[in-house]
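=== RUN LOG ===
request id: a7f3
mode: sequence -> structure
chains: 1
length: 554
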Amino acid sequence: MDKLQRNILLSLCLSSLALGGCGGSEKKDDSTPPVVVEPPDVIVEEPQEPFPVTKNLFFSGLQNPGEDTEKNFAFRYDIAAGSVYRQSPSQPTSTLAPVIPLGKSRASAGYMLMIESGKLFLGKPDQSSLTQVSTLASTVCTAAVLPEGLGYGKSKITVRTPGADATCANEDDAYFKIPLNAAVTDAPGNGAANDLNLTPFWKPNWALAGYLRPTADSLEILDAQGALARSIDGLTSADFDYAFTTGELDMILTTDSQVFANSGAELLDTGMALTALTTINANVMDPAKTVIDGDNVYLIDGALVRKIALEGGANNVLHDFTSEGSITGRLAQTTDYLVIAVDSVRLYLVDKVTGESREIINPISGDYLTGASRIYANYQDASNASAYLVNLDMAATVCPGDNCAVTENAHWLYFQTFKEVGIGYAPVLMTGEETPDPNPDDSVDSYVPAFENGYYNRPVFTSYNLNEGLPVLNLGRLNGQNKLIQTGVVEQTHGLFTMENNPDNGDELADVIYFNLSLASSLKNISRSGSIDEKVLRESDLSQRSPLRTGNRF
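=== RESULT ===
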């Protein structure tokens, strides 16, 4: 059969398929029941709000600090234009960067609230102009931002103003509650004194469940509408703390050292007794010394490190530091270890399974950051500075060693990051450089040291991958001698921090430095004026507390 015949036959067979097939006239058996296709499971998405596009960053500045003409201003940095604009006219201002919840593990710290002469303004990271949301009849004594849901439109600021006596903190003070998306013509709503002490807690899908509110002798539990659901009575103001308000778990410690582990739904269920999970020696749990890993809670209880099972409440002493020194600082963790500072100068590992303790760095100073298998730590005195990077994928031996990279004349900066993927941390290494003295003494070899008295000479900044411990980008360099003052936060990839330049000038004020974690050589001094002491609005927080619990207060 030639090629043409084969093609004709194939075409005839294909054409006949619709009529019952090719090469036969047998009727098709339609008795087989149709296949039942199960519909796919409906996936209910967690509630979330979109992340704002970061076009602007905000900071504050104190003009003529310490003088009679001292004034505090707010500033906006336009990232695309590379320019700084003053946001407040001529009056002193109060500024705040509230954390706005956007969904599970997602939040934004890019908004700015500014109070000026009783007027409340909102600065948004994606808008170039401030929005006035309210006008108050008097000055503001204190204020706190509280979420009532997700997004800035569901957040409100509770404001305390002086009463007729024009004096703050008296019984005649007035309270107002103002939504952050209010119009300037909207009258402020009524607030209450206790609103300043509310702490939100969340459902597992990150919808708002309710609030915790301490009083003089109880801990009140309110629902999402602010109605009282139940209270734990017989307490004093120092008798409790709550270590976590994540939604999946809310832990509360009461007067008799009882640890409660309950979900938000259980806290609100008045028909369910709140049964203590276990007890500890301390009267109040310290949230900064408590971490959760899977089904276990690890916490520092005096000299003891405890491991408490969330199911059943099994409470075991994982390690006793009595013979090794006093536990200081916060509790951090990697995948396999707890990381604990002892006597403020030694860093220890405690195995989460065996409880074995070992010294890993000596000496340290300041705080430390941990990834899945990495530890970042510093030591600094007047003449020496060292930055440590421990690799726990290798043998966990004391620094220096094969598992520990030590960079001299260097310092780690720890930035808290607010991104679409969640809240995390980014380490950046600042490394000084020795250079010839620009004003040398001909009789000796003159040079500017890489580090001296807290100042790093011509420092270069390199971002690192937190969990891998590898350099990512060279962010840029600063000229002259520079001292770290504040480490700010990163909104998406954009961040700020402050440095003081030139140790020989005693009147030198802090400058604001901009950088982009996704862009090499992005470092830029964006200071407005040499007469203004500039500050970031929110500093990075390495503690284990929820970012919605701290820093939302003027």
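=== NOTES ===
The two ends are 92 Å apart (CA to CA).
The chain is about 5% helix and 45% strand.
=== END ===
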